[in-house]
Amino acid sequence: MNTEEIKKLSDHYLLNTYGTRKLALVRGEGMRVWDADDKEYLDFFSGIAVCNLGHCHPKVTEAICRQAQTLVHISNLYYIEPQVKLAALLSRHCFADKWFFCNSGTEANEAAIKLARRYWTVKGTPKPDIITAEQSFHGRTLGALSATGQPKYHYGFDPLLPGIHYVPYNDIAALEAAINEKTGMVLLEPIQGEGGVRVPDPGYLAAVRRLCSENNVLLAFDEVQVGLGRTGKLFAHEHEQVMPDIITLAKGLGNGVPIGALGCTDAVAEGFAPGAHACTFGGNPLSTAAALATMEILTAPGFIEAAAETGAYFLNMLAAIAADHDTILQVRGRGLILGVEFNQPVAPLIGALLDAGIICGPAGPNILRFLPPLIADKAAVDCVVAALESCLEELGW
Ligand SMILES: Cc1ncc(COP(=O)(O)O)c(C=O)c1O
After folding, report:
1. Which of 197, 180, 185 is nearest to 136 (CA)?
2. CA–CA gap between residue 32 and residue 27 (Å, rounded)
3. How confident is the model at residue 325 (pLDDT cuts 50, 70, 90)?
4. Rounded Cα–Cα distance for residues 240 and 246 (Å)
5. pTM above 0.85, yes or no
6. Is 137 an active-site residue?
7. Is the separation of the CB atoms in 248 and 260 below 8 Å?
8. H-helix or E-strand spanning residue 189
9. 222 is catalytic
10. Is 288 in the pocket of ligand 1 (CB under 6 A)?
11. Bridge partners for 164 per DSSP
12. How far is the C-alpha of 179 from the C-alpha of 39, rounded, in Å?
């Protein structure tokens, strides 16, 4: 099928949740993807921070194929070998002692909300309230949507989950004022992705940790977008050496095979008992085999360090462009999540870049967001930077 044919069927048969799109992508390899009309693109969005190892990484593909020929699904009524191997590998690399697997970021955050509420109930001191940040993004299911501090995503879905309060991000005084005896959990992205690639000030996350500990409140980090090497460390909270009690992951974990995860300390894990929470597909053999292969590559010596170096190079190049363009208000980010804030909507720029064969995306109306695969090299960055410069010129920005 060509692009027009795919678009026509899509318009006819799919709910219009994604609107009109320009491309139908049908093939990928490494940093490159091809559309249904065989035009090639350099993918600097990675399926929204998912294909961190690039498209169709041979080792992940091999693991998927091997597992597909062995056992695709069996349910959590039975032990699952790749699932336990994945949990053990994740625990070797972070604070979390115990894991729960699901299929997406929103489900991982649902699990976090349920775990926090049940944890305090089981302890005999129910504290149902949750504090999240303005401009946060935690997912689209009703609990995670309620936790998302962006009213534009809430429209038409009232009543939302009660007991959720929002505070300005990066404002420790506001958080301190909001915590009370009903607060059971603070849920934050260590860097806000969807909300505009917002990196908090140094010391903010440590101060949040201190406040949570002093007030007996659980701290959860949503690393669905910024975890797994995206920021130049395996987990974004490592930059500040601040340990949460709960972490949520998804996106890059299976390099494209849907999987989400919640990790927590042994103490917090006491909140769930058999039957308290479950997921039919969660952590099934296929998704965990893919995630295990992905994690083995991500954690190989030097892999993430190389991505961090490419990210620093990219950030410098973007800063140099910003110095020559008054339309750019700020360049920010860490590792390979980078945002360029303009003084106007970036949709025309994203369209121009697409025409030039570069895929990237927005993070809010005025912010251009780059989420290249972690295998991106300096030559690929140079190519994107050159395209960006000529698109800015073309648009007169
Ligand atoms: C920080 C964060 N949390 C949660 C989600 C939701 O993940 P999913 O779309 O897999 O449900 C996203 C998605 O963009 C995200 O960026």
Report:
1. 197
2. 9
3. very high
4. 16
5. yes
6. yes
7. yes
8. none
9. yes
10. no
11. 130
12. 53
